[in-house]
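User: Reviewer 2 asked us to show a designed sequence for the structure in our supplementary figure. I'm pasting the structure tokens here. Could you produce the per-position amino acids so we can include them in the response letter?
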């Protein structure tokens, strides 16, 4: 891990540099020039909290005493904290004019001096803005890449757990439909043999086979229950897929999301899982593809229908396009169709994205 100096070092360094520049030029400065430069240097201590105000304080120093460093550091901070281009253009223009126009005004200035002054003024204003924007973009990109990596790891774990759950469900179905059926036939046949056997030995053997078959059926039912429930316990990444956990799912989604409405508490397990997985997938997609956007989750029901709508707005932070096969949305559509419902997903007119699920109220 690379060593990173504490934050107070970065806060104090511009103040020290500006104060050193003021002290070195103090022998040629008037009290007014020295005072404005000193005030501008000290104001840099507050540049992270009030960047625009500090920039306004440093401009008089730039005009009166030609102290450039305080205004440069203040303009850099403004570019770091604000992304409005018109605001940055205006601040840069003020700094450039303050640098280029001397005070008091000089009556006789050569063309070469004017040209050199304009060049230096543009550089003094443009350089801190470009560096501030570069630093802001770099920080946002690093944060976005970290979020994408976390989301991909989150999605990978979900895919693994979904695959395991599907395999367990398939195995449980095979055991229930095939093995249990055959053991039941054995128990019925043993019962018939026990009733119609001509001798006591055969009856006793048939009774034993029937009792063992019944015990085996109970064990199979228990194993099927365990297989279907295995892996569905609540964890940090995969909460229990029921509507009782929707509030926690929205709160821990890592984005700005709101949940509105309510659903009947006596919904069947298939409906609850479908609703939970739809909201979970929509929140994950919003986090990956619409960073900074607000998400609204609406749930409700009527006499014969359940409805879930998840809609996010336009992203407010830079997005990084990632390859996607849309398997998550395909799985949600298949799940809805198996339950006799419908699933729709697509962009909105405002530049966001909407997911809509409709299910019948009855259990499948």
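Assistant: Here is a per-position design you can include in the supplement:
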């Amino acid at each position: 891990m690379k060593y990173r100096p504490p934050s107070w070092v970065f806060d104090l360094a511009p103040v020290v540099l500006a104060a050193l520049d003021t002290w070195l030029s103090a022998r040629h400065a008037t009290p007014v020039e020295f005072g404005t430069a000193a005030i501008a240097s000290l104001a840099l201590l507050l540049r992270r909290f009030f960047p625009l105000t500090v920039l306004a304080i440093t401009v008089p120093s730039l005009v009166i005493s030609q102290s450039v460093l305080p205004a440069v550091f203040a303009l850099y901070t403004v570019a770091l904290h604000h992304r409005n281009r018109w605001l940055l253009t205006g601040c840069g223009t003020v700094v450039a004019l303050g640098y280029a126009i001397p005070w008091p005004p000089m009556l006789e200035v050569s063309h070469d001096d004017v040209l050199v002054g304009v060049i230096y003024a543009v550089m003094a204003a443009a350089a801190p803005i470009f560096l501030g924007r570069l630093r802001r973009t770099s920080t946002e990109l690093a944060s976005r890449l970290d979020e994408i990596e976390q989301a991909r790891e989150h999605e990978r774990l979900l895919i693994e757990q979904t695959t395991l759950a599907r395999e367990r469900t398939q195995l449980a179905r095979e055991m229930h439909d095939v093995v249990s059926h055959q053991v039941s036939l054995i128990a019925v046949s043993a019962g018939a043999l026990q009733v119609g056997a001509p001798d006591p030995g055969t009856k006793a053997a048939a009774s034993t086979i029937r009792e063992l078959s019944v015990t085996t059926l109970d064990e199979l039912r228990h194993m099927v229950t365990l297989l279907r429930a295995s892996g569905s316990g609540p964890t940090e990444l995969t909460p229990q897929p029921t509507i009782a956990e929707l509030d926690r799912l929205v709160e821990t989604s890592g984005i700005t999301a709101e949940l509105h409405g309510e659903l009947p508490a006596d919904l069947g397990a298939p409906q609850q899982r479908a609703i939970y997985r739809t909201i979970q997938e929509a929140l994950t997609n919003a986090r990956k593809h619409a960073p900074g956007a607000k998400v609204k989750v609406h749930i409700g029901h009527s006499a014969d229908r359940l409805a879930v709508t998840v809609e996010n707005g336009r992203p407010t932070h830079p997005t990084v396009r990632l390859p996607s096969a849309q398997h998550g949305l395909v799985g949600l559509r298949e799940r809805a169709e198996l339950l006799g419902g419908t699933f729709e997903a697509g962009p909105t007119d405002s530049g966001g994205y909407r997911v809509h699920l409709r299910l019948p109220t009855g259990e499948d």
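For the response letter, you might also mention the following. Strands lie at 257-261, 295-301, 305-312, 342-347, 353-360. The first strand starts at residue 257 and ends at 261.
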